Prior knowledge:
Helix content is 15%, strand content 33%.
Amino acid sequence: MKPSQILIMIFMCCAIACHNSIEKDINISSPNQSNTIHFELNDKGQPLYWVSRYGETIIDKSGLDFEFLEDIQLFEDLSVKSFGTANFEKSWEMPWGEQREVKDVYNELKVKLVNPKNQEIILHFRAYDDGVALRYEFPEIEGLDSLSIAEERTEFQLTEDYTTWWIPGDWDIYEHLYNTTKLSDINALQYANHSNLAQTYIPENAVNTPVTMRSQDGLHLSFHEANLTDYAGMTLKVDTTSLKLTSNLVGSERTKYKVKRELPFKTPWRSIQIADEAKDLIDSRLIVNLNEPNKLGDVEWFTPQKYVGIWWEMHVDKATWDYGMTMNDKGQWEDTGQAHGRHGATTENTLRYIDFAAANNIKGVLVEGWNTGWERWIGFEDREGVFDFVTPYPDYDIKALSEYAKSKGVEIIMHHETSAAPRTYEKQLDSAFQLMNDMGMHVVKTGYVGKLIPKGEYHHGQWMVNHYRKVLETAAKYKVAINAHEPIKATGIRRTYPNAVSREGLRGQEFNAWASDGGNPPEHLPIVAFTRMLAGPIDFTPGVFDIALPTKPNNQINTTLAQQLALYVVIYSPIQMACDLPENYENQPAFQFIRDVGVDWEQSITLNGEVGDYVTIARQERETDNWFVGGITDENERTIDLKFDFLEEGKTYKAVIYKDAKDAHYKDNPTAIDIQDMEIQKDTALSIDLKPGGGFAISLMAVK
């Protein structure tokens, strides 16, 4: 079905001779008049904007500026050449996602500015009911074919000392725990130095986005960017005295510029999601709406799915990624016949996972460690040329396994670890994706562990942004979807390229298996739902049942079993892993929820929540009348009151409720779970007790 679309456009243009003759406040309000963006030039001809909500200023006057390597002054002594407004109302359909139909309704202001040399810039402002956004457009400039950006300085002047949930503005990784402080107390370097991650480069007092804030009156703001294309990722530098955020682009040690673009071009959108209640941040579709429409057309070859895989057993030291080969003096891998015997990705082991998936309504099997190169994938300075993305280890029969999986209604999920050597990967992209296409594989999990080669580039700089896009575009030609780990941030590009199905970009489940700081604390995911998840789908890999991790005496999962189930609903992804070992699911009644739960949604409704404390989400499965509800809490016990008024009038649903037992506790008794059957209708009300680190999950199957 084609997306329905209604477009209403009204332009108003006004020619102005110089900035001194313009009325002070040009503005645009959102359709319901809640959010207003104001614009003016100061007495030096420099652009300023500010944002009000219901007439109250929430972003005070903030500057817009750039520093270029070229001898050019584009943001001084400006005049308004013209400005116009337009109203848009349309809808579009997600091929997969949190909901089928997305409404895209906003009002736009476009301001064309000119300097005394008749050089122009264009500012685009959009006002939505759930937030605001701005971007820059650089038209052609006589005598220049490109611009080299040393820094972008987009300011966000806050009006109070917000409570802030943030991670350091690391140029290489997002895998930090979130910190909760006042804006004035942010100290990114001090915080990062206490993490157990290898340091890369973190500008002083810079934070990564999305960064979410709450005012004393309960107003919520989340700062991020959308449509990150051929540009550097944006961090935000925090002035803890003036309470001002300023864009700080990720750079490169190999170039003096942070971004170089041929003219003309547009920057990514700088976005602020705005909500009176925390739960409304999750239901906002601002980030995807700020991206271009689908360029791929029908992607029926990708099916949202649950998957299992050869992965967790490596994290709990049951198996290894590498086979035990050696590299000869010609740089070729050789089988010495003395494999160490702990290799996980064997034909025999993969057959076991395929059979388990087929028996349990699971459509995918991820296999890590299937290809040559794992013996030198990390800890070596020169890792280029190490991985071969088409050559399996001797004990892995890729063709036979692909055929067997297909006969069982299961698809192998490919794995490509690059060891942060993207040039090696780019040389093999076509052959690697052609192999997948030949084998009937349509999803690949990519990885970029380690410091980048070439030295001096960072994961979140322009060079790597373009690499990630090249992978995505090349994959699309071969009908391959990308689940990127160690990725560039999600900025809604999944709308334009719906083969961008999921990504990591946070401290995931694996940290619970080996992190020396005790793993992810109970507050981690109730923060993630209101920060990282606002950017897009997360491959968090839930579903650990053996929570004590017996092979890891110093580690355990800091949730209850009921929360592990709830994560299939709370943390959104169109691919969801049941990450534990198959044997740990045997004879476990709670595993029925994983068999039943959907992965593709007709609609999603956030029922309640507070950042860092708790959240409850209900999702209706596409193509069925089934609903699933999940709720999680932090280290604090609490009671959640549920209403089911989202259900269809007059229908009865057979419900199975999976909740913490009375004595459940994430540390002392994490697997204690109660399972209850009942019938639920639209007017039903329930109270459910969540124990420390706990949660609940409900399946609601329509009675036919």
